Amino acid sequence: MKVLLVGFFCWIMLLQATAQYKLHYAMPVIQYKSVFFTDTAMVSLKFEQPGTTIHFTTNGKTPTEKDAVYTQPIVVKGQSSTIKAIVFGSEFLPSDVLVTSFYNKGLAIPAVTGTLPDAKYKANGLNSLTDNKGGFAQLNTNWLGYTNDTIQFYIDLDSKQTIHEVALNFLQDEGSWIFLPTKISIFAFNNKLQEYALKKTVYPFTNLPGKGSNCVFTSLRFSKKISTQKLMVLITTLKKIPDWHPAKGEHAWTFIDELKVY
Amino acid sequence: MQRRNFIKHSALAAGALAMAPTLSSFGMAEDAILGHNNKRYKLNKDWGKLDFTHYPVKDCHEMIQDSKGRIFLLTNETHNNIIIYDRKGKLLDSWGHEYPGGHGLTLFNENGTEVLFICDNSRNQVIKTTLDGRVLLTLNYPKETGQYSKQEEFIPTETAIAANGDIYVADGYGKDFIIRYDYKGNYLGYFGGRGDKDEHLLNAHGVCMDYRNPKQPTLIVTSRQQNAFKRFTLDGKYISTIPMPGAWVCRPVIHGDYLYAAVLQSNANLWKQSGFVTILDKDFKVVSNLAGSEPIYKENQLQEMYQTVKAFDYPHDVCIDDEGNLYVAQWNSGQVYPYKLEPVI
Fold it and tell me: For the GH29D-like beta-sandwich domain, which residue ranges apply (chain A) (predicted)?
């Protein structure tokens, strides 16, 4: 019985010692100029809290304490790269995983024409879609904002190119009535028929509550490569804000800051 | 210890150890030490918990302590807009069914009698009441300013009451003006509003009197979306800006030599429960962030601040009691009751 009691008090002491560890650290803070880069991008992480270290990976795996400790800016290259980072420390439980992806600029897009944004959120007009700037989950001046039912973009690559993917970067921010589109279609121009032919359609998102502010990079990959000079992107926006939202029934906003062709 | 309890506890203890993150199942206080320098606190999340079926809360917006030591909480739950606790978290009383947008709560000692000022941003009014809820005065939209054409444009978030009884109302969800009245509610003037000059405000969410320098009483106004506090003279002349980079600061609360404020969220992680609490000394230098990053000054410039510990979701106000304990009320945080934080010596 004595041994049991001693054992029990050890349990209690151990529990009291670890009780304060119940809270988690927040994720590290990530800093970059843009998630879109030309050759390379420099990415910084920070977490100013004594007794903590940031561990990160660039291979897609969730970091553990065995993975690299962040000490200096990370250089990103390739078509795309994902940084995952976690804070570990002595006082609290590890943070959630910070996940941020970076994307190469892709094929040069000399001109985009099509639906113009609302005057309040027009950035630098449709040129903003190809300026390689952006990827911040906040309402800054890079974003084009729309309340149209559909948005159309015409892409002219200047000459025939072989492509396998078209991608768009959207903002999600329910607090500002900004929602994700419900449907995206990509059409390629057929020179012989002199018309646009549908190549791919996705119904990418359901808009659920409590998502916060996020950048959502949406990639449409073709089942096989196509050869074309001109593309058309047709985006169907969310017409009515869902019932769970205070502004239910109003027209949702759609925000886009970049368009990529690979 | 009785044998039966002992067995029960051991079983739970073993279970708890196996899954360390859920220790609260053991029934132990879920505490953690938060903060920096000489302002560190032990967190108690259970302090304000009540029977939700009888004393529900929605957003817990603001808190004050009266001279009897009682802690008043204002919530926009009209079942009981005001909940009154003792320091130990015991429910003492509750009242109020008519404040659907109850947001700002300020206490003022009016010649020995304490009164409350409630800002209701659904009713678009400021209401002065006794401590038991009898209405003494109601302020409607300030048409005398010439800046408003209807009641709905006025969405007050906070009041501050000067020693002479003058009432300053922050229209923090309306047009961001600070409107001044005398103690009877007669209009005296206004300042602030939106614009790109230093004296302009963006989301003037809070206002308080600063009597720490007896020779120069001032007003401190929150400009939340600018991540700053701004100081004004009592007649509304701009003095200076205190940048709070990265921090969506709510109302300033002065207790002793220090200024305390809930930070609704971090710019670095918007609308993702990234709040913390910040504490500034008499010289407006941040000395501690509870659940936030260590305050760092480089060449006298405060560096960006952000949440570092997931202790709070969206803190909306702090109250410091006569014993130096700190209470945190939260907005949109799963209808949690206020937390208490006790200083760690």
Answer: 37-91
CATH code for A111-261?
2.60.120.1190
When scoring B270, B273, B344 by the number of chain A Cβ atoms within 10 A, the one with the most, hence best to mutate, is: B270
The CATH number, out of the four listed (2.60.40, 1.10.20, 3.40.50, 1.20.1260), of the domain defined by the range A21-104? 2.60.40
Parse chain A into domains and list their residue ranges: 21-104, 111-261
φ, ψ for residue A230 (rounded to 5)?
-125, 140
Indicate the burial class of B168 (C-beta count within 10 angstroms; 0-12, 13-18, 19 or more). buried
Q: Which residue of B has its CA nearest to A18?
A: B20
Please indicate, yes or no, whether the overall pTM of this predicted structure exceeds 0.90: no
B46 part of a folded domain:
yes
Chain B contacts to A (CB-CB under 8 A): 1, 6, 9-10, 13-14, 16-17, 20-24, 26, 28-33, 43, 267-272, 274, 293-294, 296, 303-304, 306-311
Nearest CB among A11, A23, A52 relative to B311 is that of A23
Residue B47 lies in a domain: yes
Kind and range of the H or E run holding B113: strand B113-120
Boundaries of domain holding B291: 28-343
Q: What is the pLDDT of residue A21?
A: 43
Assess contact for B40 and B31: CB atoms under 8 A. Answer: no
- Distance CA(A257)–CA(A125), nearest Å, equals 10
For B162-218, the pLDDT digits (tens) are 999 999 999 999 999 999 999 999 999 999 999 999 999 999 999 999 999 999 999
Residue whose tokens read 């109601």: B138
Q: Which amino acid is at A249?
A: G
Lookup: tokens for A150: 């559909």
The DSSP element (H or E) to which A10 belongs, if any, is helix A2-19
Number of separate domains in chain B: 1
**Burial call B210-236: b when 16+ CB within 10 Å, e when fewer:** beeeeeeebbbbbbbebbbbbbbebeb
When pLDDT is cut at 50, 70 and 90, the band that residue A254 belongs to is very high
Q: How many CB atoms lie within 10 A of CB A155?
A: 26
